[in-house]
Write a structure and sequence with these properties.
The chain is built from no helices and eleven strands. The protein is 0% helix and 48% strand. The protein starts with a strand and ends with a strand.
Length: 132
């Protein structure tokens, strides 16, 4: 059974940092890409960052470029999202998701995995609140 467990959310002041973790199980980690998404109240879910677990390539949304860093620990089947210089507009529920990214699926541009519909499996969300 595929499971994705997101954790690490919380309340932080603007300018602060948080690190989210996505623990994955039930699939071959290296065959997948993991994406982080967020959804604020009344807004659509948007892609934040994604990583190809097999070779570590990453892509970011423009809104978080230079502030957020996605990384993976393949030994632990865990993907992290380090969020620095947080802003009130970063407030949202953050989700991690997995998409098969091996074989012919690898032909997709990695940036396409910032689109929610490209992902097959989703974890529960973790709330991030940034106060001004």
């Amino acid at each position: 059974e595929v499971q994705l467990q997101a954790s690490g959310g919380g309340l932080v002041q603007a300018g602060g940092s948080l690190r989210l973790a996505c623990d994955a199980s039930g699939f071959t980690f290296d065959d997948y890409a993991i994406g982080w998404f967020r959804q604020a109240p009344g807004k659509e879910r948007e892609g934040v960052a994604c990583i190809s677990n097999s070779e570590g390539s990453v892509r970011y949304a423009d809104s978080v470029m230079g502030r957020f860093t996605i990384s993976s620990d393949n030994a632990k089947n865990t993907v992290y999202l380090q969020m620095n210089n947080l802003r009130p507009e970063d407030t949202a529920v953050y989700y991690c998701a997995a998409s098969f990214y091996s074989g012919s699926a690898y032909l997709r541009p990695l940036k396409s995995l910032l689109v929610p519909d490209e992902h097959d499996y989703w974890g529960q969300g973790t709330q991030v609140t940034v106060s001004s």
